[in-house]
Amino acid sequence: MSDKPEKFIDENGLRLDGRRVDEIRPMKMEIGVLSRADGSCYLEWGKNKVLAAVYGPRELHPRRMQKADSVLIRYRYNMAAFSVEDRIRPGPSRRSTEISKVSREAFEPVVLTHLYPGAVIDVFAEVLQADAGTRTAAINAASVALADAGIPMKGLVSACAVGKVDGQLVLDLNKPEDNYGDADIPMAMTSDGEITLVQMDGDVTQEEFKQAIEMCKEGCRQIMEIQKETLRNKFTKLDDVEVPDEDEDVDVSALVESTLESSEDDVEDEEEAEVESEDDTDQEEEVEGGDEDSVDEDESESEDAEDLDSVELVEDLEESFTDVDEEDATDDEDEDEKA
Ligand code: CDP
């Protein structure tokens, strides 16, 4: 690790990497980079390199983990062993478990979770190269991957950190600022400025904290533009794809069903890969306390879903979940007994 620099900001107000105090590192994103994921995004932010993959919504196994009235979001933040200077021991750690938990919570307020009761959405964020701000980088990539997977959300989530060096607040910390600075405050927020994640390491005054939020809002606004541009580019490309004639009927429910069937193949493998987080235990308890069968029996549509334009799609999706439930009823009973 390099030594602590004498000064972080020079006489011209520029930081060690030449940025102004309110400037974010260059960021670029690519969408749909993984063919097996329902949604994916590769992000480079400064020297950080992160890959996010989203799978689902798909039926959750084992069924005792299902939430009767909403989808379960699982988020796994992981640093590759080779992503940092010293090799990272593979497998979950206290740090990755904590980051996974707070990142999942950063998405819960925006995902329309009530649309997919009994289902799960898996988000994997793999840090391939780390250089400060990886949790925020992962959230930015995961947000685009969720949109790429077509997960209904109120909006995108963007994340950025504000820190303090040489007694001054700086946006989007680089490595020396992160290592030796006086504070590190990662935040995530929606386009409306609703904060969905805030953590703080170090000390700032109340006034500085307010300023940090404002700085972060501006950083997130810029990041959201990049996220939106990335998504727009995909849809512009989609314009070139051959679409059926207007009078040609498209069987949406068959499409949805085939998607679910293909995702089902992965389900058994995924059962093994449980995301370790404190909250998972709570969610498990919640389900055990609730009426598991209500997922099968509740054929009435959610009232909120009626407000959406995609009501038909939601109905098809819920029906197909019911079909899957019936087919797998025997297997699931066996599993539940074992559990
Ligand atoms: O990455 P983020 O800022 O979200 O989290 P952090 O815990 O503040 O870590 C800051 C940086 O320290 C990371 O981005 C990595 O570059 C580095 N780090 C490391 O070298 N080894 C670790 N085990 C953890 C972090």
From TrEMBL:
GO MF term (any one): RNA binding
Listed InterPro entries? ExoRNase_PH_dom1 (IPR001247), ExoRNase_PH_dom2 (IPR015847), ExoRNase_PH_dom2_sf (IPR036345), PNPase/RNase_PH_dom_sf (IPR027408), Ribosomal_Su5_D2-typ_SF (IPR020568), RNase_PH (IPR050080), RNase_PH_CS (IPR018336), Rrp41 (IPR011807)
One Gene Ontology BP term is: rRNA processing
Task: Return the EC number.
Answer: 3.1.13.-
Q: Where are the transmembrane segments?
A: none
Region annotated Disordered sits at 258-339
Q: What is its main location?
A: cytoplasm
> Acidic residues composition bias: which ranges?
262-339
Name of a matching Pfam family? RNase_PH_C
User: What does the UniProt entry say about where the protein is found?
Assistant: Cytoplasm
Q: Which CDD domains match?
A: RNase_PH_archRRP41
Q: Which PROSITE patterns match?
A: RIBONUCLEASE_PH
Main EC class of this protein?
Answer: hydrolase
What task does this protein carry out? Catalytic component of the exosome, which is a complex involved in RNA degradation. Has 3'->5' exoribonuclease activity. Can also synthesize heteropolymeric RNA-tails.
Question: Which protein family is it in?
Answer: Belongs to the RNase PH family. Rrp41 subfamily.
HAMAP family documented for this protein: Exosome_Rrp41
What name does UniProt use for this protein?
Exosome complex component Rrp41
Query: What is the organism of origin for this protein?
Result: Methanolobus vulcani
> Gene for this protein?
rrp41
